[in-house]
Design brief:
- This protein has helices spanning 4-23, 41-59, 74-94, 96-110, 116-137, 147-150.
- With 151 residues, it is mainly alpha-helical.
- The protein has 2 domains: 4-59; 74-147, no CATH class.
- The longest helix is centred in the C-terminal third of the chain and has 22 residues, at 116-137.
Length: 151
Protein backbone atom coordinates (compact mmCIF):
# COMPACT_ATOMS: atom_id res chain seq x y z
CA UNK A 1 0.00 0.00 0.00
CA UNK A 2 1.36 3.41 -0.94
CA UNK A 3 1.45 5.72 2.03
CA UNK A 4 2.92 9.17 2.30
CA UNK A 5 6.11 7.75 3.84
CA UNK A 6 6.52 5.19 1.07
CA UNK A 7 5.97 7.76 -1.67
CA UNK A 8 8.64 9.96 -0.09
CA UNK A 9 10.97 6.97 0.25
CA UNK A 10 10.49 6.05 -3.42
CA UNK A 11 11.22 9.62 -4.50
CA UNK A 12 14.31 9.72 -2.28
CA UNK A 13 15.47 6.36 -3.67
CA UNK A 14 15.06 7.51 -7.27
CA UNK A 15 16.88 10.77 -6.59
CA UNK A 16 19.70 9.04 -4.70
CA UNK A 17 20.27 6.51 -7.47
CA UNK A 18 20.27 9.25 -10.11
CA UNK A 19 22.66 11.34 -8.00
CA UNK A 20 24.94 8.35 -7.48
CA UNK A 21 25.12 7.64 -11.20
CA UNK A 22 25.86 11.29 -11.94
CA UNK A 23 28.79 11.26 -9.47
CA UNK A 24 30.58 8.89 -11.84
CA UNK A 25 30.77 11.74 -14.36
CA UNK A 26 32.64 14.11 -12.02
CA UNK A 27 36.03 14.62 -13.69
CA UNK A 28 39.15 13.79 -11.72
CA UNK A 29 42.64 15.12 -12.24
CA UNK A 30 45.25 12.49 -13.19
CA UNK A 31 46.91 12.50 -9.76
CA UNK A 32 43.51 11.96 -8.05
CA UNK A 33 42.85 8.60 -9.70
CA UNK A 34 44.37 6.59 -6.85
CA UNK A 35 43.62 9.03 -4.00
CA UNK A 36 41.45 7.89 -1.11
CA UNK A 37 39.36 11.08 -1.04
CA UNK A 38 38.46 12.84 -4.29
CA UNK A 39 35.77 15.15 -5.66
CA UNK A 40 33.56 12.07 -6.07
CA UNK A 41 33.87 10.85 -2.47
CA UNK A 42 31.31 13.02 -0.67
CA UNK A 43 28.66 12.95 -3.42
CA UNK A 44 29.02 9.17 -3.62
CA UNK A 45 28.73 8.82 0.18
CA UNK A 46 25.62 11.02 0.19
CA UNK A 47 24.11 8.93 -2.59
CA UNK A 48 24.75 5.67 -0.73
CA UNK A 49 23.34 7.15 2.48
CA UNK A 50 20.22 8.28 0.61
CA UNK A 51 19.72 4.80 -0.88
CA UNK A 52 20.16 3.10 2.51
CA UNK A 53 17.79 5.47 4.29
CA UNK A 54 15.13 5.26 1.59
CA UNK A 55 15.30 1.45 1.57
CA UNK A 56 14.96 1.49 5.37
CA UNK A 57 11.83 3.61 5.03
CA UNK A 58 10.43 1.28 2.38
CA UNK A 59 10.80 -1.92 4.42
CA UNK A 60 9.62 -0.34 7.69
CA UNK A 61 6.12 -1.18 8.81
CA UNK A 62 3.87 1.80 8.33
CA UNK A 63 0.70 2.94 10.02
CA UNK A 64 -1.41 1.93 7.05
CA UNK A 65 -2.84 5.41 6.58
CA UNK A 66 -3.62 6.23 2.97
CA UNK A 67 -2.46 9.42 1.29
CA UNK A 68 -5.17 12.06 1.28
CA UNK A 69 -4.93 14.33 -1.78
CA UNK A 70 -8.32 16.03 -1.74
CA UNK A 71 -7.04 19.17 0.02
CA UNK A 72 -4.02 19.72 -2.22
CA UNK A 73 -3.91 22.80 -4.41
CA UNK A 74 -2.85 21.15 -7.67
CA UNK A 75 -3.35 24.23 -9.85
CA UNK A 76 -1.09 26.34 -7.64
CA UNK A 77 1.56 23.59 -7.58
CA UNK A 78 1.43 23.24 -11.38
CA UNK A 79 1.79 27.02 -11.79
CA UNK A 80 4.83 27.03 -9.49
CA UNK A 81 6.40 24.19 -11.48
CA UNK A 82 5.74 26.05 -14.74
CA UNK A 83 7.27 29.19 -13.20
CA UNK A 84 10.40 27.22 -12.25
CA UNK A 85 10.75 25.90 -15.79
CA UNK A 86 10.28 29.40 -17.20
CA UNK A 87 12.94 30.70 -14.80
CA UNK A 88 15.37 28.02 -15.88
CA UNK A 89 14.83 28.94 -19.52
CA UNK A 90 15.12 32.71 -19.02
CA UNK A 91 17.92 33.11 -16.48
CA UNK A 92 20.65 33.24 -19.13
CA UNK A 93 18.94 35.32 -21.82
CA UNK A 94 17.35 37.80 -19.38
CA UNK A 95 20.18 37.93 -16.86
CA UNK A 96 20.15 36.94 -13.21
CA UNK A 97 18.76 40.13 -11.69
CA UNK A 98 15.74 40.46 -13.98
CA UNK A 99 14.79 36.79 -14.25
CA UNK A 100 15.23 36.01 -10.56
CA UNK A 101 13.28 39.10 -9.52
CA UNK A 102 10.44 38.15 -11.86
CA UNK A 103 10.58 34.56 -10.59
CA UNK A 104 10.19 35.64 -6.97
CA UNK A 105 7.48 38.17 -7.81
CA UNK A 106 5.57 35.52 -9.77
CA UNK A 107 5.98 33.02 -6.94
CA UNK A 108 4.61 35.47 -4.38
CA UNK A 109 1.62 36.23 -6.60
CA UNK A 110 0.90 32.53 -7.20
CA UNK A 111 1.10 31.88 -3.45
CA UNK A 112 -1.51 34.56 -2.84
CA UNK A 113 0.35 37.70 -1.79
CA UNK A 114 -1.32 40.82 -3.19
CA UNK A 115 0.49 43.72 -1.48
CA UNK A 116 2.75 45.13 -4.20
CA UNK A 117 5.05 46.96 -1.78
CA UNK A 118 5.68 43.75 0.17
CA UNK A 119 6.27 41.70 -2.98
CA UNK A 120 8.83 44.21 -4.28
CA UNK A 121 10.46 44.68 -0.87
CA UNK A 122 10.81 40.94 -0.39
CA UNK A 123 12.10 40.09 -3.84
CA UNK A 124 14.33 42.78 -5.35
CA UNK A 125 16.61 43.47 -2.34
CA UNK A 126 17.07 39.74 -1.76
CA UNK A 127 18.06 39.17 -5.38
CA UNK A 128 20.50 42.09 -5.36
CA UNK A 129 21.98 40.97 -2.01
CA UNK A 130 22.44 37.40 -3.25
CA UNK A 131 24.03 38.60 -6.50
CA UNK A 132 26.46 40.87 -4.61
CA UNK A 133 27.28 38.08 -2.17
CA UNK A 134 28.00 35.58 -4.95
CA UNK A 135 29.96 37.89 -7.24
CA UNK A 136 31.81 40.18 -4.85
CA UNK A 137 32.47 37.97 -1.83
CA UNK A 138 32.52 34.42 -3.21
CA UNK A 139 33.99 35.21 -6.63
CA UNK A 140 31.30 33.40 -8.64
CA UNK A 141 30.47 35.23 -11.87
CA UNK A 142 26.75 35.54 -12.52
CA UNK A 143 25.63 37.54 -15.54
CA UNK A 144 23.47 40.31 -14.02
CA UNK A 145 21.86 41.80 -17.13
CA UNK A 146 20.80 40.61 -20.58
CA UNK A 147 23.17 41.22 -23.49
CA UNK A 148 21.13 44.07 -25.00
CA UNK A 149 21.34 46.16 -21.80
CA UNK A 150 25.15 46.00 -21.56
CA UNK A 151 25.58 48.36 -24.46
Amino acid sequence: MLTRDRIGALLLLAFSIFYGVRTLYIPLLPFQAEAAFTARSMPWALSVLGVVLSLALLVRRGTGARVETSGFQWRRAALLCALMVAYGLTVRPAGFLISTSLFLIGGFVILGERRIWLILAASIPIVVFFWVLMTQFLGVFIEPWPEFLKG
